């Protein structure tokens, strides 16, 4: 493999997809009541949801530079020529700083990419990167593809309460909604790596309906000649997520696949139980002049 693709656990890629494409994943950490766990390895999203309901202190932390360096050296020893390392928004975490520090310690070129996203918005871009790497694309062109995939996509999410985002300091411009938080069910979005308010809705039922409507409208407006990839993500809200998958299957005819994904412990710690999110990435984002890229 000429180019290896690395990401972090907040991409929430289904393990079978990551393994199929040789994507290496570095876990972030969740600290519950003073005990640190590696996301997806030592603690589940459900356990974090229970901790939040019980008002136990929950926080998150980035991987260490040493953990990135160890992986980069393993890949270097395996004979890769370049590494493309794609991570969650620098507005949300210092993970990318750890990756950059490690990149300077290994003998191959490491392209550290701030996806300006998280969840499957980043995950689909990582998958596109891995497919391009398999087809022989070089690192610099894979980075461009990642940017196109994220920039051309849509990420909309519903939270039952803004309190968890406020506690974790990730609320961004959505802080403007806090004064009326008890009387609304907010829809939020990710814009250039940070959270912004999208719409104030009075009830959960109406908010979920608007989540679907806005997703369908955003998808229809996309330049996606090859169709789109869709992911419905949730934390402790499986039934509502399954229902949304069924509805989007009917209302987004351009969807090539619709994945149902549980949000992991790290993002779950900040958004709280009951969260639903929809990521849509255009498959056409990969249609760029890359020598040997997947089509």
Automatic annotation (TrEMBL):
It comes from the Bacteria. GO terms for molecular function: lipid binding. The keyword Calcium does not apply. Pfam families: DegV (PF02645). Keywords: Lipid-binding. The keyword Flavoprotein does not apply. PANTHER family: DEGV DOMAIN-CONTAINING PROTEIN DR_1986-RELATED, FATTY ACID-BINDING PROTEIN TM_1468. This is DegV family protein. It comes from Leekyejoonella antrihumi. The lineage of its organism: Bacteria, Bacillati, Actinomycetota, Actinomycetes, Micrococcales.
């Amino acid at each position: 493999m000429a180019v290896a693709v690395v990401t972090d656990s907040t991409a929430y890629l289904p393990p079978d997809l990551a393994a199929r494409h040789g994507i290496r994943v570095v876990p972030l950490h969740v600290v519950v009541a003073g005990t640190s766990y590696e996301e997806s390895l030592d603690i589940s999203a459900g356990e974090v949801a229970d901790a939040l309901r019980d008002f136990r202190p929950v926080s998150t932390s980035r991987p260490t530079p040493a953990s990135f360096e160890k992986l980069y050296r393993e890949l270097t020893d395996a004979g890769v020529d370049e590494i493309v390392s794609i991570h969650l928004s620098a507005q949300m975490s210092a993970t990318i700083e750890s990756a950059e520090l490690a990149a300077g310690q290994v003998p191959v070129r490491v392209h550290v990419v701030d996806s300006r996203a998280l969840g499957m918005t980043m995950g689909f871009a990582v998958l596109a990167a891995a497919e391009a790497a398999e087809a022989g694309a070089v690192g610099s062109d894979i980075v461009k593809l990642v940017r196109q995939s994220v920039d051309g996509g849509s990420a909309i999410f519903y939270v039952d309460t803004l309190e968890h985002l406020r506690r974790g300091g990730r609320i961004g411009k959505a802080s403007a909604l806090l004064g009326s938080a008890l009387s609304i069910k907010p829809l939020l979005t990710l814009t250039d790596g940070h959270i912004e308010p999208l719409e104030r809705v009075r009830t959960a039922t109406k908010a979920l309906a608007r989540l679907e409507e806005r997703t369908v409208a955003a998808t229809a407006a996309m330049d996606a000649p090859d169709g789109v990839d869709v992911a419905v993500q949730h934390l402790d809200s499986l039934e509502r997520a399954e229902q949304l998958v069924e509805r989007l299957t009917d209302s987004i005819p351009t969807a090539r696949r619709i994945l149902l994904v549980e949000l992991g412990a790290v993002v779950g710690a900040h958004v709280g139980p009951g969260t639903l999110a929809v990521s849509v990435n255009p498959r056409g984002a990969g249609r760029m002049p890359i020598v040997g890229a997947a089509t």
